[in-house]
Amino acid sequence: MTQRIIWLASYPKSGNTWVRLFLAALRTGAEVDLMRMKGTFLMASGRSMIERHLDIGLADLSWEETAELRPLAYRAMASGPGEPLIMKTHDVLGTTPSGVALFPPEATLGCVHLVRDPRDLCLSYAAHVEISIDVAITEISNPGWASGNASKAQVRELRGSWTSHSESWLAAPFRRLTLRYEDLVADPLANLGAIARFCGFGAAPEAVMRSVAATEFSRLAAREVESGFCERVSVNGRFFRSGKTGLWREVLTEAQVARIERGHGAVMREFGYALVTQPELNRSSPDASAETH
Amino acid sequence: MNHRYCALGLDIVASFALPGLWRVNGAATGREIEIDLGAVPLRLHDPVCDRPLLQIDASGAALFRVPGIARYYLRDRRRITIELAAGAAFDRALEFLKGTPLALLCHQWGLTPFDAVSVTHDEGALLLAGGPGRGKSTLALALAARSSRLMSDGLCALEVLDSAAPVIWPAFPEVKAWRDSLEALNIAVPGEPNAGGRYKLPAESWFEPEPRPVAAVISLQPARGGVAERVTRRRGALAFETLMNLQNLPDAGRGLSPGAKPIEAIGRLAAQAAVHEVWYPQGLDRLDALPDWLLARLDLGGEGRYA
User: Fold this and answer.
1) Which residue ranges form the domains of chain A, and what is each CATH number?
2) Whether B252 contacts B49, CB under 8 Å
3) Chain A interface disruption, residue of B51, B105, B172, B200, most A CBs within 10 A
4) What is the Cα–Cα distance from B127 to B113, expressed in whole angstroms?
5) Given CB atoms, is A225 within the 8 Å cutoff of chain B?
6) Is the CB of residue A124 less than 8 Å from the CB of residue A21?
7) Which of A57, A196, B97, B114 is deepest in the core (most CB within 10 A)?
8) Which of B95, B225, B283 sits opposite A239 (nearest CB)?
């Protein structure tokens, strides 16, 4: 077996789609069709992909039975020579019900771990699935949070809470690049370029610049208005909504901020997200492009 | 007493009942398969195909396992032995018999197994294709209200007879659907869901057991996120590509089929059947209107609006 898989791991609404679009544009030299999203790499929870590698229909298996089979599928995908396989996931880095590593280290080349301020994340997630902010805060605080059957094209993802998800990937037993969404927004050229290098894309700086430009937020938002975006869940909203960071300061109530910081403050500080309800606990920002080998 | 059934162009015989298969009185296809229960090897010696759940050796014998449920041993193109896992229920083993093991035998008999829901339309068959969760079974149930009969819900088999049009062999007289689909169609939810969360509906009363030529293939795409609904005709290489993606077990089945039958069959089908890509709004609130909208556009193959 070859270590071929690079997990593009993030909690929902943390920049995963943007990074996929950037890498796809870099690889193909062309913009991605938002109606089809072909070439934007694999989804670790993609039902069809898992079924094809296991030669079995999963629809009559329980989610526990399916979870036990997922590592087998990933090992099969990683077998044989070839370029790295980049695979998106929102799963916590954990185990199957029987205790087997869900994402086999022996099949893994590394992971790109994206993290976003949970205060902004709640706003984005609430708009994405059309729920209230308070419900969104509850969901991201639930250690057992899992995707349901709403998307029957994917197997169930165990996402966990924002804290447990973040901690699990920070402890990954393989090569890891952790980046904050806010830093991607602030300096996309440097940070998306770092992702490209980590994934083994030997692209020239000019190609990286072109791909950054092709996936610039306003451009994606305009294309979504023109032709739609097949991964958008909400009927009337937009997937590419604002592209800004820190909107939570204008939208969240004091009580909502306090709730989020009470639940996730310890890990938020690890990522340099300054707390407003307990400012005395803040410390200087960490190196944003934390990479382990 | 032997129990005889027909599914996927195969005559299936067993000394015990196989609920959910279509009973027949005698041989229908000449491709007889015997199912029995017994001990199954843990592994094949020297497999030429060694996948996570499936092994195939040079003689064409195959070993397929579903952990915690059963193992299936196929040989001579004519026998499947099933060994239940400890504590496993026979009906679950039967569910998985109706998938990969029979699909492998289709390949070995020169039939091409397709992942598609199929229903009758006039004198032919409509194939509803697309990934999981695209609404294929739901659409089949909605078409049933307009006199279509079920041919398959998930797996069917394509056969090309010499100079005739490619035909689709039906599979099993049952449909599996999610609760929200059943409720949207005002169909009573029967009993408890299976392990995967879907409900099984018997469909003997509206099942078509005879093969039918393919009238059209409809590849369903979710038109969500503002993507416009439309129907487009796929021709030539695009039609061929769409049909190639319907194959069940395309990797494991390669080399099992005598000659190059899958490629030839799919090529013939691409040349003769209308292949459409249909982008329609996901959501069950306008399900009633969808079949009429779809059928009205199949012969036109042009743009349309789903009002």
Assistant:
1) 5-116+144-236 (3.40.50.300)
2) yes
3) B51
4) 12
5) yes
6) no
7) B114
8) B225
List of long-range contacts for B14-20, beta carbons under 8 Å, 24+ apart: B18/B94, B18/B97, B19/B91, B19/B94, B20/B94, B20/B98, B20/B172, B20/B173, B20/B174, B20/B200
Walk along chain A (293 residues) and give the pLDDT tens digit of each residue. Answer: 788 999 999 999 999 999 999 998 888 887 777 766 666 678 999 999 999 999 999 999 999 999 999 999 999 999 978 888 999 999 999 999 999 999 999 999 999 999 999 999 999 999 888 899 999 999 999 999 998 755 578 899 999 999 999 999 999 999 999 999 999 999 999 999 999 999 998 778 888 888 888 888 877 877 777 777 766 666 666 777 666 899 999 999 999 999 999 999 999 999 999 999 878 777 655 544 477 76
Query: What residue ranges define each of the domains in chain B, with the CATH number in brackets?
Result: 3-108 (no CATH), 112-298 (3.40.50.300)
- How many angstroms separate the CA atoms of A132 and A112, rounded? 30
Note whether A73 contacts B: Cβ–Cβ < 8 A.
yes
CB B16 within 8 A of CB B37: yes
Cβ-based contacts of A54 with chain B (< 8 Å): 51-53
| pTM check: above 0.90 | yes
Q: How far apart (Å, rounded) are the C-alpha atoms in residues A253 and B279?
A: 41
The single residue listed with the structure tokens 């916590």 is A92
Task: Quickly list DSSP for A75-141.
Answer: HHHH-SS-SPEEEEE-S-S-B-TTS-BSS-GGGEEEEEEEE--HHHHHHHHHHHHT--HHHHHHHHT
Minimal CA separation from A57 to chain B, in Å? 7
First to last CA, chain B: 55
